[in-house]
C-alpha cells in the first residue's frame, strides 16, 4: 500500500482554511488614515504672506532633512555590504556578480563586480541578464497560481485532466498525481531522476519526450513519502499551465508574470541576444582562470527546461520580483491573491535539517512549498530558493516578517561562494551581533568539504588509457535506454567512442583504469565522467550496459545510475 493511500489525498484549501499549514503572516504596511492637517487660527491680513514665506523656506529644509538621512543610510549600507561582497569575490575569484539587498520593502543596496565574459571588459551592471536556474520554479508556480485565481485550474486536479498521455512508472501514482504533487519533490522519483533529458544543453529532447519518458524511470521511494529534488515534473507543470491557459508556457509567462510585474528584462523562450544586450555568460574555473562556457549565439533558442530552470533575469527585475513578495502593492495583490500567495509559500513537504544548518542557523524545521524552500533561522522565518546551472549560481532570500531579503546572481562555478555569501548576508538580519564573517564561514565550509571528499573521494583517473576497439569487440554496437534513447558504442579513429543520439555533448572515448571502463567526456565541462559496466547476454536476453558517476559526489543531475541500456544491434 502506498503511503499516500494510507494518509489520503490532502486538500490544500482545507489545510489553509483550518490553519493546518501555518506560516508567519506578512507584516502590513501601515498608512496614515488622512493627510496631516494644520489647525486654522485667526491671523491678521499679512499672515498669508508670512505663511507663504514660511512654506517657501520650510519645504527645501524639509527636503534636505529627508535627503541627508537617506544619503547617510545609503553610505551606511555601502559600508556594510561592500566589504562582504569584495571578500567573497576575492576568496572565490568570481568572474562576475550582482547583489541587491532589500530592507523594510525598499532596495537599500546594489553592488556589482566583474565582467559578463572574463577578459571582455564588459562590466556587470544591475541590468545584466543571468540564468536564474531553479529560481525559475517560483515563477512557474506563480503562473499556476494565477490560473487558479482565474478558475482555469485547481491544485487538486489530476495531472491527466490536462495531459492525458502523462504516465509515471506506477499506474497508481499516475492516477493519483495532482497538479500540486508536481511541485513538492515528493513524487517518488530519485533525486535528479531523468535530468539527462534536460542537461547538458543543447539537446534534442522535447517536453513531449519528457512526458513520455517519465513512465520508464523507476521510483526511488514511495509516493509522497520523502523529499527528493527533481526537475522533470516542473517541466510537466509548465505543460499543465499551457494546457489550462490555452497557449504555450513561454507566452503565458510573459503575459501573466513578466508584463504585470514590470519584469521588462526577464527572458524566456526564443530571443535575440544583441537586441536585448548585456548578457552574462557562464564560466568554469580552470586552475587560476575563469573560462567561458559555450557562449550564446546571436539567437537564444527556446529550451525544454524553462519551467524548471530556464528563465533569465537581471538584478533589477529580480529585486522587483522579491519586493512583490515582501511588500506587495495593491495592484500586485490583485495580480495574485493573498490566498494563492499563502499556498505557494506554505510548507508542503518536510526536508531533513542538515547538521550544518542546525549548527549555523539553529534551524528546527525546513520544508518545501511550491517553488520555494522555507526554514526557521535564528528564530526568524525565511523563504528562499537557489539556482544552479553549469557556470551560473543564484540565490533569492526573503524574510517576510521583516519585509527584507537579498538577491545575488553569479556567472561562475560558485557553490561554496553562494553558501558563504548567503550565510553572511542572512546573519545581518537574523543575528546582527554575529561576528563571523566571510573568512570564518569559508574556512568552516572548506573543512567540511574536505571531510566529505575524504569519505567519498573520487578516484584518480589520470592513469586511464584509451580502450582499443579489438578489446571491446564483443560489446560495441547500438544500445537503447527506454528514456534517454539511442546510444552508439562504436570504433572511431582507433578508439571506442560513446555517443548519445539526442544529447550531442554526451560523447567521449572509452578509457580503461585497472579492470574498469569509463567514458571520458570530450567536452570537459560535462562532469562527472561515468563508469561503464557490461552485462553479457543470457537466457535469450540481449547484453546490457549500466553506468555510474566516477565522482560519487558529482552533480545529481548526471543521473547515470537511472540508465539501463540494452544492446539492439551492430555499429553502422
Automatic annotation (TrEMBL):
Q: What residue stretches are annotated with the Beta-lactamase-related domain? A: 84-415
Name listed for the protein in its UniProt record: CubicO group peptidase, beta-lactamase class C family
Gene3D superfamilies, per this entry? DD-peptidase/beta-lactamase superfamily (3.40.710.10)
Q: Where are the coiled-coil regions?
A: none
Q: Native species of this protein?
A: Rhodanobacter glycinis
Matching PANTHER family, A to Z?
A: BETA-LACTAMASE-RELATED DOMAIN-CONTAINING PROTEIN, D-ALANYL-D-ALANINE-CARBOXYPEPTIDASE/ENDOPEPTIDASE AMPH
